[in-house]
Amino acid sequence: LYWLNILAVRDTPADVIVREHWQRFGRNVYSRHDYEGIETALADRLIDGLRARLPQLPGSLGNQLRIAAADDFSYTDPVDGSRSERQGIRIMLEDGSRVVFRLSGTGTEGATLRVYLERFVADASRHEVPTQEALAPLIGLAEAVAQISTITGRTAPDVIS
């Protein structure tokens, strides 16, 4: 409802308002790459390999991006206090970018590797760069760190959203 109010009061198209926002605050670029139907043993090997390398990742450099921290995300529910472990491997970079690797068993066969990518773009001259191009260094880092093509044989995701 808040967006509808802004649109009504400003009488300005949404895309113009969004670009004005980017000019003032920068742009956050997001994408998810899904590798579907991976043999379960290979998917487990990929994630287990990432888990094993977590202590060595901080400080390392990949695709001109320096890894600041890496962990196996867990969540504690503030209502009931229950804890959910192994919710995804997070790679946090010095520039604030993030990559999250998570296995999903919701497919009809095998496992789905979901790779979540997020990057902040402050440079206004790069705000109109297509999402996948803006994320290219992060995509390359994700591939290198997780060894997706080496382990799974996949050279590209099945779904990009």
What does this structure look like?
This protein has 161 residues and is α+β, with helices and mostly antiparallel strands. It has a single domain, classed as 2-Layer Sandwich (TATA-Binding Protein), CATH 3.30.310.50. Helix content is 34%, strand content 32%. It contains six helices and nine strands, in the order ααβαβββββββαααβ. The strands form two sheets. The protein has a seven-stranded antiparallel β-sheet with strand order 2-3-6-7-8-1-9. It has a two-stranded antiparallel ribbon with strand order 4-5. β2 and β3 form a beta hairpin. The longest helix is centred in the first third of the chain and has 14 residues, at 40-53. The chain is globular, with a radius of gyration of 18 Å. The mean pLDDT is 93.
How are the secondary structure elements laid out?
Elements: H1 2-10, H2 14-25, E1 27-38, H3 40-53, E2 61-62, E3 65-72, E4 75-76, E5 83-84, E6 89-93, E7 98-104, E8 111-121, H4 131-134, H5 136-146, H6 148-152, E9 159-160
Antiparallel strand pairs: 1-8, 1-9, 2-3, 3-6, 4-5, 6-7, 7-8
CATH class group: Alpha Beta
Number of helical stretches of at least 4 residues: 6
Q: Low-confidence spans: pLDDT under 50, at least 5 residues?
A: none
Query: What would the CATH topology be?
Result: TATA-Binding Protein
> In total, how many domains does the architecture comprise?
1
Alpha-beta content class: alpha+beta
Q: What is the topology, as strand order, of the major beta sheet?
A: 2-3-6-7-8-1-9
Radius of gyration (Å): 18 Å
Instruction: Categorize the overall geometry.
Output: globular
Helix content percent band = 25-40%
What do the pLDDT scores average to?
Answer: 93
Task: Give the end-to-end Cα distance, rounded to a whole number of Å.
Answer: 25 Å
Q: What is the N-to-C order of secondary-structure elements (H for helix, E for strand)?
A: HHEHEEEEEEEHHHE
Give the CATH architecture. Answer: 2-Layer Sandwich
Strand content: 25-35%
